[in-house]
Specification:
There is one protein chain. This protein is mostly beta strands. The chain contains three helices and 23 strands. Strands 17, 18, 19, 20, 21, 22 and 23 form a seven-stranded antiparallel β-sheet that branches. It has a five-stranded antiparallel β-sheet with strand order 1-5-3-4-2. Strands 9-11-12 form a three-stranded antiparallel β-sheet, with no helix packed on it. A hairpin with an 8-residue loop joins strand 6 and strand 7. The protein is elongated, with a radius of gyration of 33 Å. The two termini are 63 Å apart.
Length: 385
Amino acid sequence: MLLFFRCPWFLISFLVPCHCSLKLGFSKLQRGHRLDRKLIQTFTEVSFLDCVTECMVTPRCKSVNYFKGANYCEINYENKATAETRYMDNAGWVYSEKEHWPKELAGSCSNSTCEINQTCKHKRYSEDKFFECVLSDCGIPDKKGIDLSSIKREDAIGIHRRIHASCSDGYSQSGSGRLNCQSNGEWRYDIVCTDIDECLSNPCQNGGTCINNDGSFTCMCPDGWRGTLCIQVLQNIALEKSAKQSSTKSDHDAAYAVDGNRGTNFLVHRCTHTADGDKSPWWRVDLQAVYYIIFVRILNRGIDKYGNVSFRLQDVTVTVGLKESDISTPCGFFVGPGTASQLVVIDCPASTQGKYVKISKTTEALTLCEVDVYGVPVLSSNDLV
């Protein structure tokens, strides 16, 4: 309840020592608009300046709506910048923001230490410096599973007010959905939102693993699949793309790792091989466009007439880059040693972007029978600077 008495404009001008600073507030009034469903409290039979002052002495308040025909005031906990979709045309209303008015309107409360859920009460237009902080609202409800998008126009978070809510998708509801703001500043909930285990219906396709979360679920997709339900096929974006390596032994060219041949017999199926004296061997592929790289697969050498030398695949680093001269963004690391015909999968961190993928090590020769790169496009190669 307001502790002010109404005062004519000329007396306000005399008593508020702001030297015409009220002009800013009046010049920025937005007539024919209001902010909907962000109420702290409402007041009846008050003047417009009383409405603004009520906002000034309420720390949580950011804006006001005022209906002149009924002297009706609404104070809001958001403004049009933070709740843009709720700012709307509404004939007869006036919208104003707290920051457009001088602090002096709050009187002795202009320097109060009231908490965010309190209102500073004082005697307006007097020299009395006394003020007190009283509970004004219960704050924004944050109970798990509650969806506040269904609240009604008259719902408010102020003391002795009510909000009508429902449960978010992924939760089952019991109770009426009413939330009552009690005099102690705490909500009384007449709603219970129980998490639904969506994984019971096996929503993940193509061998995906379902992980139930509060109000939702996540599918962990196997290699080659992506999307919310693992139904989008990932393409190997390295297949038949241009590849190079630091050196080449005999004719075991870098292109053999992206030719689509998945055999692992080094001599029969054409795997890559850097020169024996190369102590810092590397291999790279030009994807010819920028992608978010999701993971890289390396198919290791199998057993052949030289026996089993698959252990050479170890201490391997995979990096990604936008330029051929700078392929240094970490994707992953394989300690090894590898085993015969092993398919090594290296997951890249989220949002790893690159046009080039590089595989390198610091000891012995590097042999790759096939390299698969999976990702999604970011932009075309023509967009690169």
